[in-house]
Design a protein that fits this description.
Elements (H helix, E strand, L loop, with lengths): L5 E4 L8 E3 L4 H14 L5 E6 L3 H32 L4 H18 L11 H9 L16
Parallel strand pairs: 1-3
Antiparallel strand pairs: 2-3
Helix pairs in contact: 2-3
The structure holds zinc ion.
């Protein structure tokens, strides 16, 4: 069913084949919301085409960095809140709320993860020219 839909690049919006999106919690939630509220069925399968890969990697890295910053701000704020109120239950809840809120804020720039091992992705991006020795090579998070 998933595979019968046409692929469309999420960066250039052209109908090209490419690397599929990894269904994570955010993608799942959006799909669920779509299915239950708008009854809108996306005729396209979101992918990132080869030509847009480097662009995608950049925006994904930006998103990940922003999300980390937002979360740190949220956590610091929550800790300050709890400490300032000498750790009462309400401040703890409010703190969790702040962290959740900051996380949601970070999703404004949401860029989905691609469904493929990172090493292969880097090779695909380097292409035949292979002139990209410095594509942010992060180790796998576990
Ligand atoms: Zn594209």
């Amino acid at each position: 069913m998933e595979e019968s839909r046409k692929p469309r690049c999420i960066i250039c919006n052209e109908q090209k084949d490419g690397l599929g999106i990894k269904p994570d919690a955010v993608v799942g939630t959006l799909r669920w919301l779509n299915g239950h509220t708008f009854k809108y069925k996306n005729p396209y399968r979101p992918v990132v085409c080869r030509g847009c890969f480097l662009k995608y990697r950049k925006s994904r890295a930006t998103f990940e960095r922003k999300r980390a910053i937002y979360l740190v701000i949220g956590i610091v704020f929550a800790i300050v809140l709890v400490l300032a109120s000498k750790g009462n239950a309400y401040s703890l809840l409010a703190g969790l709320g702040v962290i959740a809120f900051m996380y949601l804020l970070s999703l404004i720039n949401y860029v989905p993860e691609l469904d493929m091992p990172q090493k292969t992705a880097v090779n695909a991006a380097a292409g035949p020219a292979g002139q990209n020795p410095k594509i942010g090579r992060k180790g796998s998070k576990s």
